[in-house]
Specification:
alpha+beta; Hypothetical protein af1432; 2 domains; seven-stranded antiparallel β-sheet; four-stranded antiparallel β-sheet; 12 helices; 44% helix; globular
Length: 427
């Protein structure tokens, strides 16, 4: 059908039976076709979550609009109180749907950006040896975009994504990059240092592409020879960094990302006095993400447990000021933590303002609200509500576990805090 035979309609007026046209790229929506007849309320909710205000539809391909039920029998003088109550209830439902759509749209934006970053990282690893200059240019383009966005916003939220956002081969490097850049800004690094930090963080494990696949993830059961081969990925990474003509600052991050502040790391066993600040940052964030997303998923700990473990038992390994800033930035309950609120309800932390982390945004288990309609609550807007304790996901009841869907893998991205504060951060 030609465009002249379609009409524009606000997404709030969509109904089942309408034949719609999505004027979006195929990666920007989850439907298999760009033009189709709406068959369920779920499809309408998905369209509203895309963040568009109006959509094209074809009247002659759409089902006729149903008559309002009971319209003919409606008494001419309807009770005014009932009518007012219905209007208020309808307005509340509309506000809920609109807020939910904005939250979903915000999440989808983050997930698309994460997916593009993961795709770029895969391309970089595929071309690093054969075309190192191309790999550097791809990496620089990605990191410059991240740094520009992070510096443009006074506050940023650390956002938990759904597990579909990343895959094992690229998830770790993108996670480390995002958290390292946010921590770098919190540490007061300028633009040039942030660029070095971002490049080093993204490529800190680039040397692993030269290792046998089974040795790319550290295993405490490695024999001496396997451990030596695993540790060689640092030297391979530095060699590739030089072939890619990375800056000295970025190359230092790659060469020092397994060093520890107390001199117990590898390959050179240097201490914090000889490590660059960007390297100290990546060493810490790398360790944190490996605790949350280990090679063996059975060994994963919750984000809350990971922070507590680093602060209580591994403090000597990390630069003191950097560790303190990281804990402050992530909050006591980082995104991905399962918690119990002070009103006894269970919740999943999905977003933390990196500047004001004590009151994160959460999804709350509410059996009276379907999971796909659950709004994110910003605890900053709920002065009488707080977090009582952290839980392991298996401590939840089956109903709460199925409702909250705790992540087995943690994927992080960032979004503007003012949007998260205004809209609850997105689920």
């Amino acid at each position: 059908m030609a465009d002249s035979q379609t009409l524009l309609i606000e997404v709030s007026r969509l109904r089942v039976g309408m034949y719609v046209h999505l004027d979006l790229g195929w990666m920007d929506h989850p439907f298999s076709l760009n033009s189709f007849k709406i068959s369920s309320q779920e499809q309408i909710d998905t369209i509203r979550s895309l963040g568009i205000e109006r959509i094209r539809y074809s009247p002659d391909k759409s089902d006729p609009a149903p008559a309002a039920p009971g319209a003919a029998e409606r008494p001419p003088a309807a009770d005014s109180a009932d009518t007012a109550a219905e209007l208020l209830d309808m307005a509340a439902r509309n506000r809920h749907r609109e807020r939910l759509a904005r939250q979903r749209a915000s999440l989808q934006v983050c997930e698309r950006q994460f997916a593009r970053a993961a795709q770029t990282y895969r391309q970089v690893t595929e071309t690093a040896y054969a075309r190192p200059d191309v790999s550097r240019e791809q990496s620089e383009s990605l990191i410059k975009g991240f740094v520009g966005e992070i510096l443009a916003e006074q506050d940023s939220c650390i956002r938990l994504l759904s597990e579909k956002a990343g895959e094992k081969s690229s998830l770790h490097s993108v996670n480390v990059t995002i958290l390292s850049l946010l921590l770098g800004r919190t540490s007061g690094l300028g633009e040039a240092d942030l660029l070095d930090l971002g490049m080093g963080a993204l490529l800190h494990d680039i040397g692993k592409i030269g290792l046998p696949a089974r040795l790319r993830w550290y295993d405490e059961h490695f024999v001496t020879m396997e451990q030596a081969i695993y540790q060689e990925h640092v030297a391979h990474g530095v060699e590739l960094a030089r072939k890619m003509h990375l800056s000295n600052g970025a190359t230092l991050v790659i060469g020092q990302h397994h060093e520890h502040a107390d001199g117990s790391g590898f390959p050179l066993r240097i201490n914090a006095d000889r490590m660059s600040l960007p390297a100290c940052i990546v060493s810490l964030v790398n360790h944190y993400d490996n605790l949350c997303n280990p090679g063996n998923p059975a060994l994963a700990v919750t984000p809350h447990e990971a922070l507590a473990f680093l602060f209580a038992l591994k403090k000597p390994l990390f630069h003191t000021g950097t560790l303190s800033l990281f804990v402050r930035m992530m909050g006591v309950y980082p995104p991905g933590s399962v918690v119990q609120l002070t009103d006894e309800r269970f919740a999943l932390v999905v977003s933390v303002n990196s500047v004001r982390p004590l009151k994160p945004s959460v999804v709350v288990h509410d059996p009276h609200v379907p999971p796909d309609e659950a709004l994110v609550i910003d605890l900053e807007d709920e002065p009488g509500l707080g977090i009582r304790r952290s839980l392991k996901p298996l401590q939840l009841s089956k109903a709460a576990y199925d409702y909250l869907s705790p992540r087995k893998r943690m994927c992080y991205f960032f979004e503007r805090a003012r949007e998260a504060a205004a809209e609850g951060g997105g689920q």
